[in-house]
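Human: I would love a firmer grasp of how sequence relates to backbone shape in proteins. Take your time, and here it is.
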Amino acid sequence: MNKNRMEAFSDGVLAIIITIMVLEIKVPHGEDIHDLAPLIPVFLSYVLSFIYLGIYWNNHHHMMHTVKHVTGGILWANLHLLFWLSLVPVVTGWIGESNFARQPMALYGLILLMAAMAYFILQRQIIQSHGEHSILAKAVGNDTKGKISPILYVIGIVFAWTNTWIAGALYILVALIWLIPDKRIERILAAE
């Protein structure tokens, strides 16, 4: 398969996921600005998830620049990632509607953790297919951010049962870590 086809499919799925999320924000009944108050948790959960999906889209796009050929393993790993990302609208809606309650926050963290693991698996499949001296292998290096993120998710999941504010802060922290553009792949491609 051509990598462009896989990339276009992934882009389409992510666009649909974001569309589903925004459609979950219901129009308030009333005409007063105070009628928006119940939507604040829903909107905040949407913003966080939108940022996460944007981060995945951005990093996926950069990673695909390193792919020369697509194998069956890469296809399945990519679908595995899209599966976990497709669950983001469900947990996003749940944490917003429940006002960031414990169980929804724990499940939100679990979905984020599983998406991170799926991204790692996709990364490993590409490196395995292209070799340990491939562009992606050089760019990833020791992958500090990739190692710290799952640990923070697990800590966030644990805190979700006792203090959802700390759990939320940890989920936001991971997003902030990845929000800073990752130039590793761009530097390696420029050096090639």
User: Anything to note?
Assistant: The chain has a mean pLDDT of 92. The chain is about 75% helix and 0% strand. The chain has one domain: 3-191.
